[in-house]
Every structure is written in structure tokens, then in C-alpha cells.
Amino acid sequence: MTARFVAAIDQGTTSSRCMLFDQAGAVVATAQKEHRQIFPRPGWVEHDAEEIWANVAEVTAGAFARAGAKPADIAAIGITNQRETTVVWDKASGRPIAGAIVWQDTRTDRLVAELGGEAGQDRFRAACGLPLATYFSGPKIRWLLDQTPGARARAERGELLFGTMDTWLIWKLTGRHVTDVTNASRTMLMNLETLDWDDDLTAAIGVPRAMLPEIRPSAEVYGEAGGALAGVPVAAALGDQQAALFGQTCFSPGEGKCTYGTGSFLLVNTGERPVASQNGLLTTLGFQLAGQPAVYALEGSIAVTGSLVQWVRDNLGLIKSASEIEALAASVADNGGCYFVPAFAGLFAPHWRSDARGVIAGLTGYVTRGHIARAVLEAVAWQTREVVDAMAADAGAPLEVLKADGGMTANNLLMQFQADVLDVPVVRPAITETTALGAAYAAGLATGFWPDLATLRTHWRKDAEWTPAMPADRREAEYRQWKKAVERTLGWV
């Protein structure tokens, strides 16, 4: 094989990047660029899909240049992406009909309530594994079709196409209109059993099937790229959290990970059958290799974690850079009785309450900038504790170790507090950006760059581990205070 690298395009909520990996799974080159966060109204969050495509082309060229690589050196491209973010574009011109509606956007809250009717938020859960929530793509598509004159008729004629960001990028790269099972499972439109669009769901939510992409496995050659990447196979697509699960080599049932990014997402592999959650988690697809059965997962989705640190930096000005928060939080011994629940767009797992809004509880004249900074980091860990408890209840077994990845794992104070409140070890891998690594692994498998899953397992290395050191009585007392603070957020809207 003459190819030396696999490329991963990691299209995230705040930035896009390209990473090149070698045969040992090591990072060879990286290029990254942020895109605008557009807030047209309170609760609305949009991206410019064409800006994102331009950035993806730029960072891909940048990563290739840094590695001294040309298309012939690349075995395959894998794509991983922010999930649920919804793009609708004109098939003929290739231009989006509106801004991409981001997963955090809450404009569909009234529509979601209407769709639930008397059945409530679990109306479609048996078929798609998801509660009715503003989070998912289906209601976003419906909203765009309802609010854009003539769009519904054009969509029914197949003149408009829908895609999450993976689909948008694959279409721009290859001209094919496809998605993978993991991204399709986040739309509320795919049946968990058939792995195809469900006629009852599409009819009830109001989305014409003619605009939906073909659903394919996560690791499969979808087509060859054109342009500057001419001839390179585009061979994988995974939603970002499923890509991190794959990158952490959680290939067997019971293995799981938590990714700390804009939000935080805990996924556990549940094997080849979907597991229905009784405790507020999502039943979703983990991954599917070409020619093999799909692998399912349970997921706990937390909307605001890393973005809370950005908010404290940008909106409050308490810090000048995100990395400063650790030192500020470490300047005090505890939170001073202050708890921060960042329900900026409602609460996700395990509550699923779109009526919640953020609170800072327990404020007294004693509380300083340091205490607020500490409460911000603790909010990440407490939200994760709620999800871990729900996961243990659904799985019938407690978590034994937490594999952690993502940018926030560089914060040692947070990782130690996470181990303390979970009362289990927290382990960080040598490559923390496992989202891009997972997309690369899947693309490499699809093209023979790597032979099998066992080979990928040999690449995983531990970089750091934190063990619990908090007394049990203090842990449970503080958890009770956290739950009291969560109660204060409910029913605000």
C-alpha cells in the first residue's frame, strides 16, 4: 500500500478541523478554523453551512500541506460531525435555503409540544429511541418547511435536500446524498429496528421522504472526492459522540466513554440489540461496519459543559481564556455553597425539560469569582453524575471506570472532582481527540488501511488517571445540594 495516512474531517459545533493519522494511529498533522455562531433571536442558534464548507476545504488543504501530503498519500477520508444540526439546500444550485439550525436551538419548542399532544414526549420513543425534544433534527426540518414559502412543495418534488453536517460534506465532496446510521438515528425519523426511514414517523412529524438521504453503514466507501482531493475515497461517517466511542475502542458491550466538549456525552455500547431506557437516556446507534450488524448504544446527552466556560469568559468576563478557569477555581478550597446549573437551553438527559433555565443558587456575600469558577467546573461533574446514575439503573450494573476524552480533560481539577463525585477512576487516553481518531479508524477499516478491530485496540494508551479521594458523606451531601439547585431551574418558561 502506497498510502501513508488516513484523513479525518472533524466538523464540530464551534470549529472545523482536519487531522491526518499514520498507521500507528498517531497524529501527523492538524489544521483547525472556527466558524461564526449566529444568534438571530433568543434561543435561536444558526451556522452558515457554506462558511463551514469553505472552512473544511481550507483546513483540509492546511493539514495536507503541514504533512507534505498529496491525495495519493491518503488511503481514505472519514467524517465526523456535530449531530442534529440541520441543513436544507437546493438540489440544483447547491445553496442552503436558510441558515443551518444548530442542535442547541430551541425554536421548535412549541412544535415539539404540539407533536407530543396527549401522548407527551415519549410519543415516538419506541420506534426511534428518542424523546420529543428541540434537540433532534426532525422538528427542525418541519419548522424550515413550514416557515419557508414554497419549501414543502419543493421538498416533496425532491428539489430540496436535507442533511446533517455529514451529509452536507459528503454531498459537497462526492455528489452523493447519503448519511450513516448514527447520524440518521438522531433525526427522530429512523426506525431503530429497520435502520431505514420510518413512514409513520416521517408522516407524523411532517417531513417528505423525497428530501431524505440514503442511510448507509458508518464505515463504507461512499464515493471518491473531487476537486483538490480528487480520487480519495470518502469512506466513513459517524456522529461526533459515536466517533469518540469508536476512537476509544469501545467495541464490546458494556464499554463506554464520556466526551467533554461544547456539551458532554456519555455513551455505552449495548451490543447488537437496542436497549430501551427507563431513566431518561437515549437509545441510539453506536456504529455499523459494512456487511456487519449494527451496534447500539445508550447515551446521556448534556447540553452545556465546555460552552459554559466560554460563556463565563465571553459574557461575564471572569476569565480571559478558557484555560484560566482551572487556576481561578483552585484559588478557593470549595464552592462556598454556590451551585451553577447551566440550563441555558433547557435540561437534556436525564431530565428532558425544555422549560428549565439556568440558575446560580446559594449566593451569599462570601462568594467570590473563584467560587463561581469552581461551581462552573463542578456543574460539569454533577451533570455527568446524574447521567452515570441513570446509565447504571438502565444497565443494571454500576460504572467501574470512566474513559474520558475531549478538550476539558486537560483540566486536572475537573477530572479529579469528576472521579470524586462518581467514586470511580477517570482515565484519559494518550490521544484525547478521539472524535477525529474514530472517524479515521472507521475510514481506515473500510479501505483496508487497518485490518481489524483488534489491531485498533492495540493503539489505545492511557495518558493519565484520577482516583476518587472524597469522603462518601461529603459527596452525597453535595449531591443533594446540586439536586436542590436543579429543582430551581424547572418550570421557568
Description:
- The protein is 34% helix and 22% strand.
- By secondary structure, the chain is an alpha/beta fold.
- The strands form six sheets. The chain has a seven-stranded mixed sheet.
- The radius of gyration is 22 Å and the shape is globular.
Largest sheet: 7 strands, mixed
Helix share bin? 25-40%
The radius of gyration computed from the alpha-carbon positions, rounded to a whole number of angstroms, is: 22 Å
Task: Using the alpha-carbon principal axes, give the shape.
Answer: globular
Question: How are the strands of the biggest sheet laid out side by side?
Answer: 15-16-14-13-19-20-21
Specify the structural class.
alpha/beta
Question: SSE layout and pairings?
Answer:
Layout: E1 5-11, E2 15-21, E3 27-34, E4 46-47, H1 49-67, E5 74-81, E6 87-90, E7 100-101, H2 109-116, H3 125-128, H4 137-147, H5 151-156, E8 160-163, H6 165-174, E9 178-180, H7 181-184, H8 199-205, E10 214-216, E11 219-224, E12 233-239, H9 240-247, E13 256-260, E14 264-271, E15 282-287, E16 295-302, H10 306-316, H11 324-330, E17 339-341, E18 359-361, H12 369-395, E19 402-405, H13 412-422, E20 426-429, H14 434-446, H15 453-457, E21 462-466, H16 472-489
Parallel strand pairs: 1-5, 5-12, 9-10, 13-19, 19-20
Antiparallel strand pairs: 1-2, 2-3, 4-7, 6-8, 11-12, 13-14, 14-16, 15-16, 17-18, 20-21
Helix pairs in contact: 9-14, 10-12, 11-12, 12-13
Keywords:
six-stranded mixed β-sheet, globular, 22% strand, 493 residues, seven-stranded mixed β-sheet, 21 strands, alpha/beta
